[in-house]
What we know:
The structure holds two protein chains of two kinds.
Chain A: E1 2-5, E2 21-24, E3 29-30, E4 33-36, E5 42-47, H1 48-57, H2 68-74, H3 81-89, E6 93-98, E7 109-114, E8 120-128, E9 133-141, E10 159-169, E11 174-181, E12 187-197, E13 202-209, E14 214-223, E15 229-238, E16 243-252, E17 258-267, E18 272-281, E19 288-298, E20 304-313, E21 318-327, H4 331-339, H5 344-360, H6 366-383
Parallel strand pairs in A: 3-8, 6-8, 7-9, 8-10, 9-11, 10-12, 11-13, 12-14, 13-15, 14-16, 15-17, 16-18, 17-19, 18-20, 19-21
Antiparallel strand pairs in A: 1-2, 4-7, 5-6
Chain B: E1 3-7, E2 25-26, H1 33-42, H2 47-62, E3 84-85, H3 99-107, H4 110-117, E4 120-125, E5 128-134, H5 136-140, E6 144-147, H6 148-153, H7 157-163, H8 174-182, E7 187-191, E8 201-206, E9 213-214, E10 217-222, E11 227-235, E12 243-245, E13 248-253, E14 258-266, E15 271-274, E16 276-281, E17 286-293, E18 298-301, E19 304-307, E20 313-322, E21 327-336, E22 342-351, E23 356-365, E24 372-382, E25 388-397, E26 402-411, H9 415-423, H10 428-439, H11 441-444, H12 449-459, E27 463-467
Parallel strand pairs in B: 4-8, 7-10, 8-11, 9-12, 10-13, 11-14, 12-15, 13-16, 14-17, 15-18, 16-19, 17-20, 18-21, 19-21, 20-22, 21-23, 22-24, 23-25, 24-26
Antiparallel strand pairs in B: 1-27, 2-3, 4-5, 6-7
Amino acid sequence: MEININKLPARTFNWLGMNETTVEVPEFISGVMKESLPCEVTCERKSFDESLDEVHSNKSAGSADADDNFFSAVYETGMGKDFDSLIARSKAESYVLKTKPGIAASEAVRFKIETDGENSVNSLIVNAAKDSSVTIVMDYAPPEGVSEENHHEAEDSSDMFGVQTRIEADTGSSVCLVQILRHGADTSCLNDIGAVLKDGASLNVIQLVLGGSRNYMGSRVVLEGDESSFTSDIGYIVENGGRLDMNYSALHMGKNTESAINAAGVLKDRAFKLFRGTIDFSKGAAGSVGNEKEDVLLLDDNVVNQTIPLILCAEEDVEGNHGATIGELGDELLLYMQSRGLSREQVYEEMSRARINAVCGKIPDAATREFMAEYLELRGSKRNGG
Amino acid sequence: MREKSNVNDIDRSIYDFRNEEKDAYRVKEGLTPEIVEKISSEKNDPVWMQLFRLQSLQIYNELKAPDWGPSIEGLNMDDIVTYVRPNTKMSAKWSDVPEEIKDTFEKLGIPQAERKSLAGVGAQYDSELVYHNVRREVEEQGVVYTDMESALTGEYADMVRKHFMKLVTPRDHKFAALHGAVWSGGSFVYVPPGVSVEIPLQSYFRLNAPGAGQFEHTLIIVGEGANLHFIEGCSAPKYNVANLHAGCVELYVGKNAKLRYSTIENWSKNMYNLNTKRAKVEQGGTIEWVSGSFGSHVSYLYPMSVLNGEGARAEFTGITFAGKGQNLDTGTKVVHNAPNTTSYINTKSISKDGGISTFRSSVVVKPQAKRSRSAVSCQSLMLDDISRSDTIPAMDIRTKDADIGHEARIGKISDDAVFYLMSRGIAQEEARAMIVSGFADNVSKELPLEYAVEMNNLIRLEMKGCIG
């Protein structure tokens, strides 16, 4: 079966092949996530359809009289409706996570998604209550004892799993979502996010894409409330015949909203990467600021790097910026590093790791940061034959 | 109360005058094989061109309209007259041109510009050239500047056949196919190797007939080491029915040659401007596009540079001004197809009074284009909250050995800049006018003085205070 995902909010030249992505998917079954919760949050399981209905019924006072089209537009995810249908067909249950008003979770909520080759799909819905705060860490990894090293090339892989995370951040709430994709190299992933932020709410998404053969990432965040803010930091390494297909968008609706989408990564071997990033200012989003930044290090001649950063603007009093740098390391930097005794290969390895470390450094949860430091060290030494 | 500044619409009165329709011949509205055959027969096409037109029509009927970009629902080909021949033959003397048509071009300043600053002029009225002339000293250099119809059957017929719609093929998109079927008019330029044409050539296209289309074809071949600046201008009076412009420009820039192609597009606001421009640049060659888009109801315009030879270079400098009722989708495309190629794209757009401006681009770096560099900068200015400005730049990089930079910015007139100028004793209205004029400066400074003046006339950013 095929689904169309990651549709660009404004289409462009078809010959570029960037307008959307068609993916062959298997029939999915409902997945299971292992959770670890601090006492300040609750988590219950509901059918996906039921939980989605609940999301749609949580209309903010300011928009209660808006029509259904408005809500379906607001609550769309980055990957789009085909992925919703796929989850619904799998009869997946949603994990519905709720925080308590005014309470900050004392520890991070942790979800482990074991990518065991069963073509499973999971749904997580986060309801962040007014003035609450929570950090959620989602770790996508093979079961204990199963290596995540490369078994197959991308085109040979057949295992696939999916995760959809929907976030409703109420007034003044703060959510940090950390997603670590370190699943096996013979596994593909569909990872989707949809979020709506009310007045003064903030969402910080940190994603590390370190494994998998084909990864499809969607993220759509609606800054509905005034002075809401959203930051997305993505760090990735794509290698061998790997494929990373991204669609990130920030829709500014409220006044004085802020968004920043930062993607930094490395492409090696025959890697393919497509980054779609959109800052969309609706009429009325006066005083808002959106920034997109992309930094891609290309390490091999057979890589394909596609980038399409959109700024859509229907409001005068806003500021939208995009910047991208794509290419090899600068000669001067390379020469300097080599003069410090590093080989060319070591320089590139260090620069790759530096990009990932920079994103890891933004994780607010100390335990996850430490875990990632150890993980990256071990991964590095394995690659160096250690 | 808050003081607001108004930026007035472009003053179009000097372009909006209409002449009585005194055409000698026109085809029926619509697009059928019979109409295409009739055009071909009226133009005495060689056989290969007759077949080419019919094949293009077939392709047109096969291809779909674009599913991206501004809506063209208001364009109904059944209502468009694709060929209107004016009541005169082409001449090399202004005195032979009928008074009314001559008067049109005089109002547009073409004969005056020819006398002062041009090496040659072509003037097209509806579907045919009515005037074409090139200075003797330029002709003596071996430069050929003539109408496409003459070139098709004259001394350079083989050269034309070899290049005509080979760079932009009818399969490219639906309106390229339409062009292939009904093209008429336009210019052929050949600059022999090593020849430098010191002052520009210019073609001016005027569409007078309501409900008509203009489909001129411009083919320029610049030989090895040669140098040319070509300017095209276009305008039309406004009517209440849709007009269509689907021209095609094919530019061949030889080894170490340089071509600057400047356009001031000022079609009326009932025009659908679906134009295609493309340049192929050989080793060490340079193409420079300077593009000002001010007119049209809807525009799709993305001049493309194919950098085919090592060290080839493209520069694109553009400004788009979208006012009331306008949806202008403009930008550029570059393909780096050889090592050490360079592209530099710098665009500005202004939206006001409900106008929609979209910057759309693509930069493709092929695997063989080692050590290529590209820098893209697009800036958009929104002058009110009923307008719209989008940027849609795409990059497809297929070698590690490339250096690609991109920056885009959308915003309003900077309060800090206004405050600074006001602190230097400049009134608020004037300060805002200065900032907006300065925003457009990068294009006007790339044009010859006369055309920079024309562009500034077009912008006419008159600022005045009012209570808002």
